[in-house]
Design brief:
The protein is an all-alpha fold and about 270 residues long. The chain is about 70% helix and about 0% strand. It has a domain at about 1-150: Tetratricopeptide repeat domain (Serine Threonine Protein Phosphatase 5, Tetratricopeptide repeat), CATH 1.25.40.10. The longest helix has 18 residues, at about 45-60. Residues about 1-40 have low confidence and may be disordered.
């Protein structure tokens, strides 16, 4: 059973990983480092390296991966002990399909800041991408146990996606449900939890989660089509037609709209 699909919101997962919990959309310092910086003024070398890191993060978010790599390498020339820079370098190298170098960067970040939850989270996502699911689960667990870690909802969500990929559907439901408890508005959590339940023919519960998504501006062709299939399975034809009309009106060129018009509810 496939739970996660290659669609627009998966980019949001990756960006959620990449932002490292920074409120401004830029990588934040590891938790150990943040505690240290509250007590002393940031050294000049770290300040200069941080400027480069922020540039690298901006380029990375814009899809300019090679430019981002160049900037993060410059940051590490200035300050080789900058854990957040090694962490972001790992993400950039993941984007460049350089798994060996990416893992080395994450491990170097953890040698410098071994309790940083953001790095453990990113390493867990890396292992998931490599289908190293046991190591992925261990990394996510370490992230969730890290002191001062502020992104538990994100980690539970991604862990649930990885467990679904591994065929661990009971565990995936538990993780995604925990993510929902911590952040009930996250569209990736809502979609994947509804899809998982629909695949298990638990459509009443699937409808509960998906309606929370489809009643917002974050609904897209895939979430509306999933809503159509859930309502079809529940024999609610009025809701099928309502969601289908919305799907065709808003996303007329999508393959989901085409499937609705063909009546291909079981594809």
């Amino acid at each position: 059973m496939t739970v996660i699909r290659s669609w627009g919101w998966m980019l949001s997962v990756l960006l959620g990983v990449a932002l490292l919990s920074g409120c401004s959309g830029l990588p934040s310092a590891p938790s150990d480092e943040r505690a240290w910086l509250t007590q002393t003024e940031e050294p000049e070398t770290r300040r200069r390296a941080r400027v480069r890191l922020e540039l690298a993060a901006g380029y990375f978010e814009q899809g300019q991966t090679m430019v981002a790599l160049d900037e993060i390498n410059r940051a590490l020339v200035i300050d080789p002990r900058f854990a957040a820079a090694h962490n972001l370098r790992g993400l950039i190298l993941m984007g460049l399909n350089e798994p060996r170098l990416a893992e080395e960067s994450f491990q170097q970040a953890l040698r410098i800041s071994p309790r940083d939850g953001d790095t453990w989270h990113n390493l867990g996502w890396f292992y998931c991408q490599q289908e190293r699911f046991v190591q992925s689960a261990q990394a996510f667990d370490t992230a969730l146990q890290s002191p001062a870690y502020a992104s538990a909802a994100r980690t539970w969500m991604v862990q649930g996606i990885c467990q679904a990929r591994a065929g661990q559907f009971h565990e995936a439901e538990a993780s995604l449900s925990r993510a929902f408890q911590l952040d009930a508005s996250n569209p990736i959590t809502l979609y994947n939890l509804a899809l998982l339940l629909h695949k298990r023919d638990d459509n009443e519960r699937a409808r509960f989660y998906l309606r929370r998504l489809n009643n917002t501006d974050l609904a897209n062709a895939e979430s509306l089509w999933l809503g159509v299939k859930i309502e079809h399975r529940l024999r609610n034809q009025d809701a099928v037609q309502q969601l289908g009309r919305q799907l065709v009106r808003r996303f007329p060129d999508s393959r989901e709209a085409n499937a609705f018009e063909r009546g291909a509810f079981d594809e």
